[in-house]
Structures are given as C-alpha cells and as structure tokens.
Write a structure and sequence with these properties.
Shape: globular
Helix content: 25-40%
Largest sheet: 11 strands, mixed
Radius of gyration: 21 Å
Strand order of the largest sheet: 1-3-2-6-8-7-12-13-11-9-10
CATH class: Alpha Beta
Strand content: 5-15%
CATH topology: Amidase signature (AS) enzymes
Order of helices and strands: HHEHEHEEEHEHEEHEHEHHHHEHHEEH
Number of helices: 15
Amino acid sequence: MSLIDLTITELHEGFKKKQFTSTEVTKAYLEHIKAIDPKIGAYLLVTEELALGQAEAADKIIATQENFPMLMGVPCSIKDAILVEGQKATSASKILENYFAPYDATVITKLKKQGAVILGKTNLDEFAMGASTENSAYKVSKNPHDLTRVAGGSSGGSAASVSAKSAVFSLGSDTGGSIRLPASFCGVVGLKPTYGAVSRSGLMALASSLDQIGPFAKTVEDCKIIFQAISGNDALDATSADYNFKDSVINLKGLKIGIPKEYFAKGLDPEVEKIINHTTEKAKEAGAKIIPISLPNLQYAVATYYITLTSEASSNLARYDGIKYGFSKEAENLSQVYTKTRGEGFGSEPKRRIMLGTYSLSSGYYDAYYKKAQQVRELIKQDFSKAFKKVDVIFSPVAPSPAFKVGEKASDPLAMYLVDIYTVSVNLAGIPAISLPAGKIGGLPIGLQIIGNHFEENKVLAVAELMEKML
C-alpha cells in the first residue's frame, strides 16, 4: 500500500511504529500533486516550503514523544476562503488576487497546534458562490472519477484533493451544501457541523448566518478526528458555541430513521433514489426502524435560502471596495474607484448575487423579501424540531443526480441553484449533516445524507460509521 492511500489512523500508527516519517509522507503527496493536479485542478496554491518545514517539525516531536496528537505530521489541504497566515488567500476571486493572509483562521491555529502539515490552498467557486467550482476566476476543478465532469461546489477543490489522493484530508466551508455536494460528487466523506460548533473566525464571510467550516476525509473515523480537533468555543467568534464533542457508540437496532417524503419527489434521478432506498433497506435489515416523515415547508427552502444568502452576501462583500483589500483600480474619484474595482474584480456570479441581495434589502422591499424569508426559515427550523421528536436521524439524497458535465449548467443559474435542493434546508435550520459514499451510477459516486439534531454530531457520525461498514 502506498503512503498516499493511508488514513489518518493508519498514518498515526505508522508514525508511532517509526515505519515512515512525516517528511516522507509529505514528499509523497507533493510528488503526487505535481503529477496529477495539472489534470484535476484541485489546488490554487501548493505551499511546498511550508509543508516540508511543518513535516520536519512534526518528525522531531514524533521522535521524542510517545503520545502525540492524531493529526501530527498528517498532510492536508485548505479551501482558499480560509486564512493561513503569510499565504495567498484569494477566495478564487480576481479582487483578492494579491491578498496575503495577515493571520491564521482559528481552525488553522488548531490544526497547527495538532501538528498537521498544510500542503496548499484549494480551488472553489468565487467567494463560495456556486455548486460546481466553475465560477472560480482561475480554473475549473475536475472530478477525479471522470475529468469531463464537475467536482461540485463550492468546496470542489477540497473534495477533489481528497478523492484524488493529493491530501489526506481537507477543510472546506458549507453555506448551502458546499461540503456535502462535492463530497457526494467526488465519493469522499464530508461533514457540515452544527452552526456554531466550529469557529468561523478567519473564514471569508459569504452569508454569516449560514456559513460553517467542516472536514472532508477518506473515512468517517477520519472525519470524526478532524471535527474533534477543530470544534469548540472561540472568543474571536461570538456565534461559536461552548461545545465539547463526545464520541458515542450507537446500535442500529431500534434506531429511528426518518425518511422525508419531500426529498423523494419530482426531479430526483430514479437511479439515485434506488441507491438511497438500498441503504435504507440495509439499515432496516440491521434492526433500524424506518419512519416516513414530512417537512412541509421544505418546498420553500431554495427560495428562502437564496434570499437570505444574497442579502447577507451583498452586505459582506461590500468590504471589497478597492481601498482595504487586494485589487484596486485607479480612477478620478472615490465613487469610480469602487465601481471600476468591483466591475473588474468580481466575476458574474458574485455580481448577480450582490445585486439580488441589495434589491432584497432595499427600502420598500426588505419586508417582502428578507424579513419574509426569515419567517419561513423559522418554519423550516420548526419542521426539523418536530421531526427529531419522532426520529433519531434523517436519511436523504445529497444531490438530485450524480456529478454533471463541465459546462452543462453553466449558462443557466437557476438550474445550478436547484442542485442545492436537498442541502440548503440543513443550513437554514443550523443542524449537522454528513455526506457518505453510498454507491455509484456508471462509475460516478452518489452520497447518502445523514441529518441530525443540533449538536448531535456524535449521533450523525456514529450512524455514518455503521452505514459505512455495511455499504
């Protein structure tokens, strides 16, 4: 078995037994990135010097200490919307082409404390706006299972890097499905934690009430290790919760699994439905109780999400004005600096969403759009709360279909927005969900989405681990 095939647990054991060093593992990954990434385009930046320095430091600790953190010496990649001090941080936008992060995001501070090795920054849809990584200002990340297809978005580069074995794990962010969707398309495990379980400090904000950082990994166990390392309260993020993750052992026998009828309606690929039904059947055979449930307000989730997201994005992206950060266009007066900088710096998707959001928040329309969306959001939250009184977890598809072809939906924003139909409600409710590889259609991976109640990552991960063994 090659070094790049090993999981976090296997690497940890190998380091303990002195079978190989972090430097050897890191060099193997860097060579693999050089060989494979020109075809896949997962990385925007490879931080070779930083990675080798961190691997060397990790080797010194491993050589002298018997007990060291699980992530010590383990190579990873980071979505380029998360700040790594001294490294470029573009959020895949031309407006931040030459911006260097002045500090570490809290999750990066935590990874560095654990001794993880950062291989580089991965590609995404510009400012995390998209479901295919085709909106990046720099390149399109391809799906390692089929290079003619998308890797998903917005954290497509992160998912592709784990799927292509060019990182052991990766950190992404999920605003409406940006971890789960690419995880499903690329056949890896992706966890979207409860809102507030992981600090957002140092994540470039898209929609502050929806954004959440989470891990991509090869296995559920690896996902759990990363989540444990990055979760918890942070003084730099007022929305972070005082949360101490504790692992749980769960038996499928007697476990109540909810199946929402709204997720199995028109638009779902029959082959995807077949795979999800098969996994549900497996759980039933193992003793789980399958309970049909209804989430009646789910039909409004996409509309509610896009009004909320665009409104908050319009507010958050106002900071990129040519004065404070990155790219700036010279002009005769301040107003022209703003318009020229934003006109040339932003791509078409950020412009579209900023205009939609500004309209939703404008005088005379705020009550009709943003306020109304927040009222419906509350109803969606209540639907989930009622459901979790009857069931332990919810099973559903992650996406209506397998990964689509590059360019297939690029000219139709509405078709692209509907790719998020099964994921956005989770962000609106602020609850955790995981995407787990459940099968393939014509060689393309399909993910099972396991949704849990607030701060019940222990349950979600435990059920995912049991399903992973069965599948």
